[in-house]
Every structure is written in structure tokens, then in C-alpha cells.
Amino acid sequence: MRDSRTKRHSKRLQFFVLLFFLLILIASSKMFNIDRLLLNNSTKTLELMSSMNIDMSKYSGIKIYDDEILIVNSNKIISLDYNGTVKWKKDIKAINPIVRFGIHNIYILDSINGQVVALDLNGEEIWRYDFKKSIKDIIEKGDCLIVFTKAGEKKDQINIFDLKGDLVGNIILEQGIALDCDISNDKKKVLINVLDLSDEKIKSKVALYSMNGYEIWEQNVENDIISKINFIDDKILSVTKSDIKLLNSKQKLLWDRGIAGEIIDLNIDIENEQIILLYTGNKKYLEVISINGRTKMKKEVDKNIKRYI
């Protein structure tokens, strides 16, 4: 049983590495070429299904879904099928809007007037919310939408919505800037990456809050900046440029891995309970770490690789 699972994980990893190399080639051109590929499991080959070119100098964003491609410019969102046929268009009326593509919805952010509009993947409006104050950014995490605003002039505020547009959580930081958030699977806890610039020294910390804004605990990081935070089930991952820590919800350290170099990219494979990281030192490596902190695979890779997908 263990051998069969190992083989499946190895095949999946080989596929992701192959896909990564293909995307690197695509990203190296200003003309974004979208190829629809079919994986043949028996021969490990990719078959080209369809292809189109999109001039990215005319657009500010792109998102590829299973059956459509969404592209956006300053005043319009356009949906294309894989033959290049326009499925629908949606005008954007906000000034200097920010568009974020989620798994479930599309979000149009009017950062000046403080309004968020949510569209479904057919371009239909499903809800909107007026904050009546400036908005910094929005992030879709699981079944929630996180909206970063200000509480007054100095304090950062984190507003949490369900995907129906109902406000379900609200947190105000007494100090520091919220860089990122994650929400626990049970929707009861919020993890926040905070950068504190109040003193002469830059402070970085990870803080755990209840959904209603009560701080449970915080942990400071000395002489480093936290670059990534995540819940992994009921555990908490904290990543800096050269270190990975896993803690439990009571702040107990489960393991700590120092990296002999600098972490360039890191992804969490929840299904297989593993962490995949790309880092550089004297050479560049792709390493897979189990949820227990043990190395499952480590391989030297080409120095030109900049990201793992």
C-alpha cells in the first residue's frame, strides 16, 4: 500500500514539474500563448488541444478556468472559450479598479470609493458591499473573502465575508500592517501576517485571532521577515526567507527547518500533506517536505527556474 501511494505521489510530482517547465516557456514571451493540453497518463505525454495568442500589453490580468479564459483591462472583463470566441463581456465602471479572480467568483474593487462587487463566473453580479472608506486589497481564501481596509487613519482592519456577501468576521489591529491572512477550516480562527513599523526596528510577527477579533496569541520573529503563513488542518505554517516552522494552535513549536540558502517559492500540497519548496544556495533545489518536517525528495534543478506551480 505504501509503495503504491509513493508511486502515485511521484507521478503527480513529475507531472507538476513538467507543467512548470511549460509555463516558464510561456511566461518568457510578451505574447501570452494559451495552449489547451491533455495529459495521457499511460505515455506521460501532453497533447495540444487548442491554442490562441493574447497580447498582454493590452490587458492587465488573465485567469484560466476549466472551460473559459478571463482577461481584464482598465474598463472591461472579457470571457473567452478555448477557441477564442467571446462568451460574455462586463463593463467596469470604477476608476482605476482592481480585479481579483477567485475560484468561485470575480471581484471588482473600487479602492477609492470603497466598494466591492462580486460577479459569478458568468459575469452576473451576485452582491456588492459599500465600505465608504478606502480599500487596500481583497483575497479569496477557501469559502471566504478577506477585505483589507483601515479603521481610522492608522489601524488596519480585516473584514471577512462568506461568498454570499455576508460579513462574518471583523478584526482591528492595534499595531502593525496586515500583509496576509488565512482562515482555519472550521471558520473559527484567523491567522495574520503582521509587519510592525512603529519602532526603529522592523518587526515581523504571526498572530492568531478569533473570528470576532479577539487576539489568542502572537509570535514575533527576530531579524527576519515572515513571507508566508498558512493553516494546514489545525496546524500553523510560518515561513521566512530561510526558515520554515510548524506550530500547533496553542503556539507549541512542532518542528523548525532552517534552509541553507534562500526560499524562492513554496507551495502546500494539502491533499498529500506535504510542502514543496524551491530554494537557492550554492545550487538551486526542489525539495518536498512531509507535514512531519522530514525530507521526502530533494533534487537539484536548473538555476533559471524561478517558481514552482
TrEMBL record:
Q: Which InterPro entries match?
A: DUF5711, Quinoprotein_ADH-like_sf, WD40/YVTN_repeat-like_dom_sf
- Matching Gene3D superfamilies, A to Z? YVTN repeat-like/Quinoprotein amine dehydrogenase
Q: What is this protein called?
A: PQQ-binding-like beta-propeller repeat protein
Record's superkingdom?
Bacteria
